[in-house]
Amino acid sequence: TLRKMFEERSDIFRGKCIELGSGAGYFSIAMSRWKLIDKVVALDVSLTSIYWGGPVLWEKLNPDWKKLTYMIGDMNDLH
Which of 20, 70, 76, 78 is the most interior residue, by most CB within 10 Å? Predict the structure, then answer.
């Protein structure tokens, strides 16, 4: 599965990351728990996706809130 692949190769991901079109942020949450990641931004245009799906994932996956930030925005119009 995709999850297994990323977990097995988590050593190649390091530093700062942004997930464009994150929805509730499943991948961002997983990355926030990796030791070589310093900061993760989960960006999505839909506030609803984050507010409805986020809490379910947060409870199950326990993100590292010191590293994880959510932002509302359009990935096609970044400043």
Answer: 70
What is the side-by-side strand order in the sheet with 68-72? 15-20, 37-44, 68-72
Residue 57 near residue 31, CB atoms below 8 Å: no
Q: Could you report the per-residue pLDDT of 47-66, keeping only the tens digit for each?
A: 998 989 999 999 999 999 99
Q: What is the pairing mode between strands 37-44 and 15-20?
A: parallel
- Tell me: pLDDT of 23 over 90: yes
Residue 79: per-residue pLDDT = 75
Q: How far apart, in whole angstroms, are the C-alpha atoms of residue 52 and residue 39? A: 23
Tokens of 15: 């530093």
Instruction: With CA atoms as reference, report the closest residue to 41 among 8, 12, 11, 63.
Output: 63
Q: Give me the amino acid identity at 23.
A: G
